[in-house]
Design a protein that fits this description.
five-stranded antiparallel beta sheet; Alpha-Beta Plaits; seven-stranded mixed beta sheet; elongated; 5 domains; Calcium-transporting ATPase, cytoplasmic transduction domain A
């Protein structure tokens, strides 16, 4: 539906765009605890027009059933001390773990069938013969074949895909062993044979499903960062036609349209400013902590947030042509490159799969030449396939990954990517973002000699401003009561003025109120104060460089979209010799790519949209828990705790995990070195094969538990 209103009433129009309730999704990255949930839900539920507000702590999102526009909800949360962004949940679809449930179901069926068939096998191994043995074999066939055919479907499907593509993977010998074991066992059962391999086929399936499920659990349930970026784009805009303003869908806009951007709303398109001036928060894209003042003709970009009075602009780049969309495409490209990373398990499979097939074929041909009995030769070849079961290899990586990831989670580090540990172990350079990563959101202030009444006036002025530094001052003052002010005026790009009784007061840029320095200027009548604002270092930042040096990283660098002065000051304080300032998202990506071209394997640590491309393009990446959704989803690891102190432990654990991977591969190959000659010479019975498989798998699992010992 299209609504029309006078241009002069644009601010009122933003409050009354919908006649019926809808669900509005907001991303609130600073949600951390139950107290946050209570504060946010209370602030929103107290608004007239809000039917219900519910917080999802895990996703750091709020769902609001309301007829109010998203920008009013965002402003309310800002006043409550929780920065928020509109979020289009419909763009992401439904999140379900159908794969995990499917693997669990198949694992349960394989395990239940395996136990029952083994009970029957014990009777055969104990001496049952003739009709009794044949009956037990047929009952085993009735249990095992349907169970194996259903439970092993993931291996069959992967094997078929590999064969259609013209190559072998680990699932090819697995599938062949299951099919041949089941088929040959059925033949033996129907023809009164003494041996059947039903239990071995099921135990092979069961153990490998355990490995497949453990591997699945190490992968993130999070979505593509490129999709998250798309979900954070503005979906509607206010188009000005003559003296009226229309609320239209973004895809209805055309190049050259006049766009009105109300206070507190994100810029929907790229284009030049046509109003005299504007005042926006560009940190959403660049990481620059200070808002930016624009003059007529300056280029505005989708994603900026209007902090001043409503302004007009001309649409120049729409949809996929905006800078935000170009960044999303860069992220998607980088994700595809990372997904082609070859893990140790893949490398082992490329060698192991053809070797097993060649060995089984050679065994069959050798025994056929020696004995002349195809049935006996095939039995021995199948025994070779079973006893060289890839269970230990299949468990080698996921068992260690699960143990290491669980250990890191208890330290507040959530590993989201299946190959992340291997890539983290290979990292030889760490790149740190500044704002939001080495520093926390907000500022500390030096209030000097301000009295309690002065602080009360400052609180009243801060509450009237949407400037990020004013919001930080409001949070810093906490429970300080706000003074009653009148004649409050916001001066775009400069500050707030008002009257306290008959006394003129102001808060804003130091030069505007009559002082010099960095921070906020504060004036009460003729008294002028400078309130220096200091960025808050994240806990653990102070000793991080030294700790990383002890881990073997010779050089750590900082790269920031912030200005040179702030970047240089923090780098000097933290002992970071190599740093870059004023870097755009595209330039961060280019810097990471340049390092990779030099043979470096960088790990990027960042939190903003401006870091997302670099996070995805880096060899490995880490994001704080307070990062925006897109950055968290682009990263391999999310730091759940509010500290950087455990970052070195991440690299140490990753290196330990890769060492254990290799040890487990060694255990598997040693097992095969002993078991293969026994099977090839025809001495392996089904009982021996099943016991040998179980022993090798348990040994690998026990060795994997050592990943929990890193301190």
């Amino acid at each position: 539906m299209t609504a029309v209103c006078p241009a002069c009433d644009a601010a009122d129009y933003a409050v009354d765009v919908a006649a019926r309730a809808q669900t509005v999704a907001l991303s609130v990255p600073t949600i951390r605890c139950a107290a946050c949930i209570g504060s946010i839900e209370k602030a929103l539920n107290d608004l007239p027009g809000v039917r219900e507000a519910r917080v999802n702590l895990t996703l750091k999102r709020v769902s609001v059933v309301t007829n109010l526009p998203a920008e009013q909800l965002v402003a309310t949360l800002e006043d409550a001390g929780y920065p928020a962004h509109p979020f289009d949940a419909a763009a992401l679809g439904q999140a379900t773990d159908a794969v995990g449930r499917d693997l669990l179901m198949r694992m349960g069926i394989a395990g239940f069938a395996m136990m029952n068939v083994m009970l029957l096998s014990v009777a055969v191994w104990s001496g049952a013969t003739d009709a009794t043995r044949d009956l037990f074999h047929l009952i085993s066939a009735g249990i095992a074949l349907p169970a194996a055919l259903y439970a092993a479907q993931p291996f069959f499907e992967n094997a078929m895909r590999a064969l259609k593509a013209g190559h072998l993977n680990m699932d090819v010998p697995i599938s062949l062993a299951i099919i041949l074991a089941g088929g040959m066992s059925l033949y033996e059962a129907l023809n009164g044979g003494a041996h059947a391999y039903f239990d071995a086929a099921l135990s092979l399936t069961f153990f490998l499903l355990i490995g497949r499920y453990l591997e699945h659990r190490t992968r993130a349930a999070a979505r593509s960062a490129a999709t998250e970026l798309s979900a954070l784009e503005v979906r509607t805009a206010l188009r000005k036609v003559g003296d009226t303003v229309e609320d239209v869908a973004l895809d209805a806009l055309k190049v050259g349209d006049a766009i009105l951007v109300p206070t507190g709303v994100r810029v929907p398109v790229d284009g030049p400013l046509t109003s005299a001036e504007s005042f926006t928060d560009r940190s959403f894209l660049t990481g620059e902590s200070d808002p930016v003042t624009h003059c007529k003709g300056d280029l505005l970009q989708a994603g900026e947030i209007n902090l001043g009075a409503p302004f007009e602009m001309t649409a120049e780049a729409l949809g996929q042509d905006t800078r935000l969309s170009r960044i999303a495409r860069l992220v998607e490209t980088a994700e595809n490159v990372r997904n082609r990373y070859t893990t140790l398990a893949d490398k082992a499979a490329s060698f192991y799969a053809p070797a097993v097939h060649l060995l089984a074929a050679a065994t069959f041909l050798g025994w056929l030449l020696v004995s002349g009995d195809p049935r006996h030769s095939l039995n021995i070849a199948i025994a070779v396939l079973i006893i060289t079961c890839p269970c230990a290899l299949g468990l080698a990586v996921p068992a260690v990954s699960t143990a290491a990831i669980g250990h890191l989670y208890r330290r507040g580090l959530l590993v989201k990517s299946g190959s992340a540990l291997e890539r983290l172990a290979e990292v030889n350079r760490v790149i740190l973002d500044k704002t939001g990563t080495l520093t926390k959101p907000g500022f500390d202030f030096d209030l000097g000699t301000l009295t309690e009444s002065d602080k009360s006036v400052a609180m009243g002025l801060a509450q009237a401003s949407s400037h990020p530094v004013s919001l930080a001052l409001r949070q810093y003052l906490g429970a300080t009561p706000a003074a009653q002010l009148s004649d409050v005026k916001e001066h775009s790009g400069r500050g707030i003025s008002a009257k306290w009784g008959e006394t003129k007061v102001a808060l804003g840029k130091p030069q505007w109120v009559g002082t010099e320095g960095t921070g906020l200027g504060f004036r009460i009548s003729e008294n002028v104060y400078l309130l220096p604002a200091h960025e808050i270092e994240r806990p653990g930042a102070g000793g991080l460089v030294e700790a990383l040096h002890e881990q073997g990283f010779d050089e750590t660098e900082m790269i920031s979209g912030d200005n040179v002065a702030k970047t240089r000051a923090l780098a000097g304080k933290l002992g970071i010799a190599r740093w870059l300032a004023g870097v755009s998202p595209e330039a961060k990506h280019q810097h990471v790519d340049a390092l990779k071209q030099e043979g470096q394997r960088p790990c990027m640590v960042g939190d903003g949209i401006n870091d997302t491309v670099a996070l995805t393009a880096a060899h490995a990446s880490v994001a704080p828990g307070t990062a925006l959704d897109a950055a968290r989803n682009a990263a391999d690891v999310v730091m759940l705790n509010d500290t950087l102190a455990d970052l070195p432990i991440l690299f140490a654990t990753a290196r330990k995990a890769v060492s254990l991977y290799r040890q487990n591969f060694g255990i598997a190959f040693c097992y095969n070195a002993v078991a293969i000659p026994i099977a090839v010479m025809g001495f392996a019975t089904p009982l021996m094969a099943a016991l040998a498989m179980s022993f090798s798998s348990i040994t690998v699992l026990l060795n994997a538990m050592r990943a929990r010992t890193v301190r």
